[in-house]
Amino acid sequence: MNIMMFAHDGSLNRGCEAIVRSSTHIIKEKIDGAKVYLASGKPETDTIISKLDAIYDGSTCEINKYSYDWFLSAVKVKLFKDETYALGIIHNNIVKHIPDMDVCLSIGGDNYCYGEQPGWYEVNRRVKAQGKKLVLWGCSIGQEDMSERKLKDLKLFDLILARESLTYHMLQSHGLSNVKLVADSAFTMDKEELELPRGWQEGNMVGLNFSPLVLSKNSQSRAAVRDLIAHIIKTTPMTIAFTPHVMEGGNNDYHILHSYYEEFKSKNKGRVILLPNYLNAMQYKGYISRMRFFIGARTHATIAAYSNCVPTMVLGYSVKSKGISKDIFGEEKLVLGIDEISNSQQLKAKFDEMVKEEASIKQRLRVSIPHIKNMSYKAVEYLDQLVQ
Q1: How far is it, in rounded angstroms, from Cα 44 to Cα 19?
Q2: Which of 15, 18, 370 is nearest to 190 (CA)?
């Protein structure tokens, strides 16, 4: 079976890396003879993932001005409001590989959370036009993200695998019968434990991840997180490890975490450390697994913590954070919405709650995580059944 993953923009986002890495592993582990290919917007960043059978350049192509394609695209758009020809050229680096595949996996887990996606709609249409199986792999979609155009596209899929129950029930409520409930494949990803850095307090570290994406949605959150850092230093003996997880241009966790580190390191010698910005997803997971607590804005940084039974507080901004927590705890445990994370008192109170309930949270994780990992493997079962 030839499987092509697409809708992936590279592994500078370690969450995207974690999805590709773990999905490739569990597919090959469970489906004999499966070959997995990746079409990537930044293929040079994905060479760190060794189990892929090939990495294709899946970046977008330009339509040269005044070329034949440019004129034809313009005519079709202007006279017929038809973008399909233009979009096919723009995404030709993906489209040209469809004939060689049996299954195409759209792996951008939350691509459908960010407005209309006409480019992906066109790729999906072409997959089905060529008689290939089309799967939406480990998605999260909020009710607020739905539209008639998006629903029409979702009906094209042979299989939609929702990675948490809020998305699963929402999609079912829209009449979609091609939806199955699974868990994010990254719960199964291996960790790699590197040497601990200077200043690491074994058994007494709290990891903190914050992102420009969250900051762009709530500009006042920067000050509130700063207050939380000061609160942790003042009220606990723990050391804080600032933990980046996305290093893309214009969306780089390291920059904002470095500014916190510079602010606190001189006044609080030995109480803050900054993890480097060049580790892969397994290596970040290795450090996160050895923390006592974790506070994270990036979903896959929190998955790295959850999957190692580390009590976790989520600076959430979408349905995926809420749904994943609900599936683990039976409630949205220690998840703050985007409007709440500018409230310093609320952040401090949630952190104090996490510390107070440490033992019970860890016990719940020990019970829930094996089930969640089994749900990750369910995705491969459903995929295998689809092609039988």
Answers
A1: 17
A2: 18
What the block records as the tokens of 298 is 């990036």
Query: What's the rounded Cα separation, in Å, for the pair 277 and 147?
Result: 37
| Per-residue pLDDT at 205 | 98
Rounded to an integer, what distance in angstroms lies between the CA atom of residue 57 and that of residue 39? 6
pTM of the model: 0.95
User: What is the pLDDT at residue 262?
Assistant: 95
User: What one-character DSSP code corresponds to residue 277?
Assistant: S
Residue type at 333?
K
pLDDT tens for each residue of 296-354? 999 999 999 999 999 999 997 678 999 999 999 999 999 999 999 999 999 999 999 99
Query: Could you tell me the CA-to-CA distances from 93 to 17, 60, 87 in Å, in that order?
Result: 20, 7, 11
For residue 58, the Cα-to-chain-centroid distance in whole angstroms is 19
Residues 6+ apart with CB under 8 A from 343: 224
Contact 157, 171 (CB under 8 A): no
> Which pair of structure tokens corresponds to residue 295?
């506070």
> Residue 193 and residue 284: Cα distance in Å, rounded?
8
Q: How far is CA 331 from the centre of its chain?
A: 21
For 22, the token pair is 């773990």
131-137: average pLDDT: 98
Q: What is the 3-state secondary structure (H, E, C) of 45-69?
A: HCCCCCCCCEEEECCCCCCCCCCHH
Strand partners, 56: 39
pLDDT tens-digit readout, 201-232 = 999 999 999 999 999 999 999 999 999 999 99
CA 313 to chain centroid, in Å, comes to 17
Which amino acid is it at 247? Answer: M
Helices (DSSP H) in the chain: which residue ranges? 14-30, 68-80, 84-90, 92-95, 118-129, 148-154, 165-173, 212-217, 221-235, 253-265, 281-288, 299-306, 319-329, 344-356, 358-387
